[in-house]
Amino acid sequence: MSKFYVTETRVPVKDLESSTWKAVSIDAFTAAWSTEVNELPKFTTDYLHLVTGILLPIWKILPQHNSRVFRLQTSDGQKILGRVVNAQDIQSVAEQLGLKNKLLSPQELVSLVLNEGYSQQLPGGVTLRRSYIAAEPRIELVNAISLAERLLAAGCFTEIINWKKRVFIPVSDKAPAILAAVIEILG
């Protein structure tokens, strides 16, 4: 889902004349605009988290900083009406709804960590988070070095960065399965 913001900037003619801007014909502008638009992808993917169902009884326990409501239709035709929940609020909303000790699924966690920078406290004091190493996103397990041997056997890997050993889950289609094994190890 794309967000479009309309803004307007006004510049006095005398400032415009003394700038590097220059007048162009409508045809030149149309050609340049069309070229730029054609280079854009036809579709983009965005992640949206909704609380759906009968919302009025629980409206007050949902985060108040974003009370946006969406009505959408899925690609298979299902129509959904729900209130947006930011990724960083998912765990607190789950707790408010009485789901205190419920973890999101490994697939959901991997998606949230990689796409939205979500972090999750896992059992045993280990934190799951996104880290950027050499400008590439990674799934890191913070405070897990004492379990490194067992985590390596589950599919994780370690790397020494700035003289400190760190534990990572490979960013691949196997990440959810490896994360499920990690959660099993952590108990």
Give the SSE layout.
Blueprint: H1 13-17, H2 26-38, E1 50-52, E2 69-73, E3 79-84, H3 90-96, H4 106-116, E4 120-121, E5 127-133, E6 136-142, H5 148-154, E7 157-161, E8 164-169, H6 175-186
Antiparallel strand pairs: 1-3, 2-3, 4-5, 5-6, 6-8, 7-8
Helix pairs in contact: 4-6
Strand content of the residues, in percent? 15-25%
Anisotropy-based shape: extended
Rg from Cα: 23 Å
Count of helices? 6
Report the order of strands and helices.
HHEEEHHEEEHEEH
Largest sheet: 5 strands, antiparallel
Question: Please, could you describe this protein's structure?
Answer:
With 187 residues, the chain is α+β, with helices and mostly antiparallel strands. The protein is 29% helix and 22% strand. It has helices at 13-17, 26-38, 90-96, 106-116, 148-154, 175-186; strands at residues 50-52, 69-73, 79-84, 120-121, 127-133, 136-142, 157-161, 164-169. The strands form two sheets. Strands 4-5-6-8-7 form a five-stranded antiparallel β-sheet. A three-stranded antiparallel β-sheet has the order 1-3-2, with no helix packed on it. Helix 4 crosses helix 6. The two termini are 37 Å apart. The mean pLDDT is 84.
What are the main properties of this structure?
29% helix, extended, 22% strand, 8 strands, three-stranded antiparallel sheet, 187 residues, alpha+beta, 6 helices, five-stranded antiparallel sheet
Short description:
The chain is α+β, with helices and mostly antiparallel strands and 187 residues long. 29% of the residues lie in helices and 22% in strands. The chain contains six helices and eight strands, in the order ααβββααβββαββα.
